[in-house]
Amino acid sequence: MTPGRAGGSAPRIQLYLHPDHLLPEGFGFGSLEKICMPALDEVMGVARDGSPLRSLEEIEITLVSDAVIADVHAEFMQIDGPTDVITFDHGEILISTDTAALQAVENQNSLEKETATYIVHGLLHLAGYADKAPEDFDQMAELQQSIVDRVWLAA
Questions:
Q1: Among candidate residues 97, 100, 77, 98, the one with its CA nearest the CA of residue 87
Q2: Alpha carbon distance 83, 99 (integer Å)
Q3: Which of 106, 20, 25 is nearest to 63 (CA)?
Q4: Residue 25, Cβ neighbours under 10 Å: how many?
Q5: What is the dihedral of CA 87, 143, 40, 81, to 10 degrees?
Q6: How far apart are CA 155 and CA 146, in angstroms?
Q7: What is the pTM of this model?
Q8: Is the torsion defined by CA of 39, 129, 132, 62 positive or negative?
């Protein structure tokens, strides 16, 4: 396994569904569970020194609604409205599957693959990557896409 914490192992990763959120019938939760560890391994390989990912024991990824993520967005970032992914340095990643559903259509992806893209995006934030400046956004987007392509094909 790729080195992570001081003990040498990558963090555990858990995928949850928020109790107040329903996924569409037929949503492939299992396919997302299958890509979590391969995605984490890929991201560990490109994690920057001093990034939060290197010291975490566990990462919790929770699938939520636009309403839930909008509340968190407003409370912690003082930004109104929903977003796709919110990542906290302590290892919590929130993903709006409502936003993913809209973007999946635009990006011609399945809802599961779009959600997998958001998982990788959140992991890259934990690995020390930012996407605020255009050049950082482009670098992160390219790395994100290459990781998603590899882990999705393997799923």
A1: 77
A2: 7
A3: 20
A4: 5
A5: 20
A6: 15
A7: 0.92
A8: positive
User: Which residue's structure tokens are 């636009």?
Assistant: 66
Whole-number mean pLDDT of the chain?
A: 91
Instruction: Give CA separation, 127 vs 10, 39, 43, 120, in Å.
Output: 12, 12, 7, 10
Q: Give burial (CB, 10 Å; 0-12/13-18/19+) of 106.
A: exposed
Percent of the chain predicted with pLDDT > 90: 81
Q: Order the strands of the 58-64 sheet from edge to edge.
A: 12-17, 58-64, 92-96, 85-88
Candidates 33, 7, 39; CA nearest to 145 is 39
Q: Which residues of 65-79 are buried (b: 16+ CB within 10 A; e: fewer)?
A: bbebbbebbeeeeee
* Burial zone of 147 (CB within 10 Å; 0-12 exposed, 13-18 middle, 19+ buried): buried
